[in-house]
Amino acid sequence: MLRYQQAREKIIEVVASRRRPPISEKILIHEALGRVLAEEVRADRDYPPFHRSTRDGFAVRAADLASSPPRWS
Fold it and tell me: How many CA atoms lie within 13 A of 27 on its CB side?
C-alpha cells in the first residue's frame, strides 16, 4: 500500500502526463455564449474612472407588505 504522499505524487504524475494544452480559437462575440476565455482579460484603467457606490434594487420588510395595498414610504 502506498503512503499518502506517494499516492499524491503518483496521481499528480499521471494527470500531468495526460494533460493536453487547451485548444483556443478566435470567434465572433455573438458566438461566445457558453465559451470559456483562453486568457485573462484586464482593463487598462478603472471603470468608471471615479469613486461611486452602485445600487441595484431596494430592500423591504415583510411587515410593510402585509397591508393591502402595501404602504411605500
Answer: 13
Cα distance between residue 23 and residue 38, in whole Å = 8
* Among 15, 18, 36, residue whose Cα is nearest residue 27: 36
Please give the Cα distance from 45 to 52 (Å, whole number). Answer: 15
Q: Using CA atoms, how far apart are residues 34 and 3, in angstroms rounded to an integer?
A: 41
Is the pTM higher than 0.70? The answer reads no
Q: CB neighbours (10 Å) of residue 67?
A: 8
Question: Measured between alpha carbons, how far is 63 from 56 in angstroms, rounded to an integer?
Answer: 22
Residue written as grid cell 469613486: 51
The per-residue pLDDT for range 10-35, each reduced to its tens digit, is: 999 999 899 888 788 999 999 999 99
